[in-house]
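Duplicate of #3305? Posting structure anyway:
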């Protein structure tokens, strides 16, 4: 069976060039500890720093502002817990709880971290987002209080693809003297990112979303930003993140960043065109289908589509049996009995949220893939609707 992978927002395949770059640090003489002063250690250290330069170039940062982590989740947690802890230390123990502002559509790495901070006495404001999937910067500004220590708003949403007005929110944060963090895990490698233009203090990245290895990420920390580490141990990563570095993974991340920089705009346009053909083909052949946030700025590869009277999990399983891989939303929420918090946040009912499928394209996808997907999807929808008593009843009434 010819298989089609349209779940690139969950993870991307490791690029062959990335694997080749990693191999010397897995099975050859690059295995050294980057903190060792002998030849093996210094070879590993040089490779690590070269990768740091590459990741920095991806977002127009200085290499010294890049801290390597185990992935996007650790980067997000480090940003939230680190800034709040630093703010508490700076207040010299004043009996005034810190305040965090975020949105209702953030990744769980941010939302659950925010909830954990709430349990510790931090006040958190979750700014709602309308049906556009884009937060209103004015709502962010209205939520600011004298105690606000951090604003965290994602760069683009992993389920909807909607791009947030990060640059404008950053300006607001700067005017109020507040640290601003953005989770750019889904944006990096898909659209250009410039931390200087965005004006953010912190920005999260993950290698496996841009054809790098799993288990490695990065947190951009603008020079001068006050932040406490999550863990304590050695003096790795300029005392920001202790522990022996995952040299092979970091080297892979660096190579993936280099590949992402090459032809980024051309590839984005190509994938956006394929996404357009996918959506057009689906809407032409499937009734009662809705593309979410189609009028909002979106990542070029992401399409969130609701198929009324179709159960999402059933769709994913049926499509997979025909060779098409897609998802109902974030991979880390797979198996949850609750509907997507993102879809609920933009006003969908539980039934509508459970009828939504995410298709996310990648650099390996072709026109033939889209043609085949457009053949498979109507078959799956028709089959599932034929089993739905609700759809039959509504069809008869019409």
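Output from current build:
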């Amino acid at each position: 069976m010819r298989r089609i992978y349209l779940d690139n927002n969950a993870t991307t395949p490791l690029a062959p060039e990335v694997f080749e770059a990693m191999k010397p640090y897995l099975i050859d003489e690059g295995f050294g500890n980057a903190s060792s002063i002998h030849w093996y250690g210094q070879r590993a250290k040089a490779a690590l720093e070269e990768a740091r330069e590459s990741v920095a170039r991806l977002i127009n940062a200085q290499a010294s502002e890049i801290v390597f982590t185990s992935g996007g989740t650790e980067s997000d947690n480090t940003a939230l817990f680190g800034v709040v802890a630093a703010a508490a230390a700076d207040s010299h123990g004043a009996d005034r709880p810190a305040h965090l502002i975020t949105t209702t559509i953030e990744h769980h790495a941010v939302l659950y971290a925010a909830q954990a901070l709430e349990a510790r006495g931090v006040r958190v404001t979750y700014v709602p987002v309308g049906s556009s999937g884009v937060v209103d910067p004015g709502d962010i500004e209205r939520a600011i209080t004298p105690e606000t220590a951090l604003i965290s708003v994602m760069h683009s949403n992993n389920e909807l693809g909607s791009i947030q007005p990060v640059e404008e929110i950053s300006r607001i944060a700067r005017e109020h003297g507040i640290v601003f963090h953005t989770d750019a895990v889904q944006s990096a490698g898909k659209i250009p990112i410039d931390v200087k233009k965005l004006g953010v203090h912190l920005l999260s990245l993950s290698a496996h979303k841009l054809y790098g290895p799993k288990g490695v990420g990065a947190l951009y920390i603008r020079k001068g930003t006050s932040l406490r580490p999550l863990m304590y141990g050695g003096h790795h990563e300029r005392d920001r993140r202790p522990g022996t570095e995952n040299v092979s993974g970091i080297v892979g991340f660096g190579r993936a960043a280099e590949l992402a920089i090459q032809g980024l705009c051309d590839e984005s346009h190509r994938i956006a065109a394929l996404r357009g053909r996918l959506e057009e083909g689906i809407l032409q052949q499937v009734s009662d289908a809705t593309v979410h946030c189609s009028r909002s700025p979106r990542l070029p590869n992401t399409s969130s589509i609701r198929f009324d009277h179709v159960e999402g999990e059933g769709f994913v399983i049926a499509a997979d049996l025909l060779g098409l891989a897609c998802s109902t939303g974030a991979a880390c929420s797979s198996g949850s009995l609750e509907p997507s918090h993102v879809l609920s946040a933009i006003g969908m009912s539980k039934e509508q949220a459970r009828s939504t499928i995410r298709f996310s394209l990648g650099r390996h996808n072709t026109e033939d893939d889209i043609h085949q997907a457009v053949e498979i999807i109507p078959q799956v929808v028709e089959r599932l609707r034929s089993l739905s008593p609700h759809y039959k009843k509504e069809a008869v009434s019409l």
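Confirmed duplicate; merging threads. The chain has a mean pLDDT of 94. The CA atoms of residues 312 and 364 lie 25 Å apart.
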